[in-house]
Every structure is written in structure tokens, then in C-alpha cells.
Amino acid sequence: MSTILILLATVHVGVSLQQLLDAFVYVPPDVADYSTIYWLYDDLGTTLKVLNINIYGTLVCNTCVLDAKVMLKGTMKVLVQDSIVVSSMWL
Q1: In whole angstroms, how large is the CA radius of gyration of the chain?
Q2: Is the pTM value of this prediction over 0.70?
Q3: 19, 45 in Cβ contact below 8 A?
Q4: Where exactly are the structural domains of the chain?
Q5: Where are the beta strands (DSSP E) in 29-88?
Q6: How many degrees, rounded to 5, is the angle at CA 78 between CA 61 and CA 56?
Q7: How far apart are CA 46 and CA 54, in angstroms?
Q8: Any idea what DSSP says for residue 46?
């Protein structure tokens, strides 16, 4: 499980770096204030934004579930894991 978390974290960092490059480095010469437009409007970089949000939500959920498995025992462990999974659906 830790290998999957490391891979997801690496992909999250890579996607975030690509978003930063798209917003600040690969700027079209004829557009003023492109970085603000990139972050505010959904039609620019939508695939990267959706991918990054989903990977981040998966990382947070899996980390919380792993922490609950280590720290809790018995019925409380199952209740906390279920509540974490249900709450992660809202991310």
C-alpha cells in the first residue's frame, strides 16, 4: 500500500509541476495576464485539474484509512474507516 501512495504522490507532484509550467512558462505571447486566466477559467487545463484533484483526494483518503488501521482497534476502527471513505466521496 505504501508503494501505491508513493506512486500517487509522485504523479500528484508531476501534474502540479505541469500545471505551473502551463500557467507561468508556456504562456502565449498575445495574452496578457495569462496565469490568472489559466487558474480562474475551467476550459484551460481541465484535464490536469481534474486529475490532480482526484489524485489528491485518493491520497488523503488512503492515508487516513491507513492511520486509522494503525491507531484504532475493533469496532471503532471499522466505524472510522467507513466514515473516512464516505466523507472522501464528497471531495
Answers
A1: 18
A2: no
A3: yes
A4: 2-88
A5: none
A6: 0
A7: 12
A8: H
SS3 content of the chain, % helix, strand, coil (to 5): 75, 0, 25
Residue 72: count other Cβ atoms within 10 Å of its Cβ: 14
The letter for the amino acid at 53 is I
- Place 36 in a pLDDT band, splitting at 50, 70 and 90: confident
- Identify whether the C-beta of residue 62 lies closer than 8 Å to the C-beta of residue 56: no
Name, in order, each residue with C-beta under 8 angstroms of 34's C-beta and a sequence gap of 6 or more: 23, 27, 28
Model confidence pLDDT, tens digit, residues 10-35 = 888 999 899 889 888 988 888 888 88
Compute the average pLDDT of residues 46-67: 79
Identify the burial level of 63 via C-beta atoms within 10 angstroms of its C-beta, where 0-12 means exposed, 13-18 middle and 19 or more buried: middle
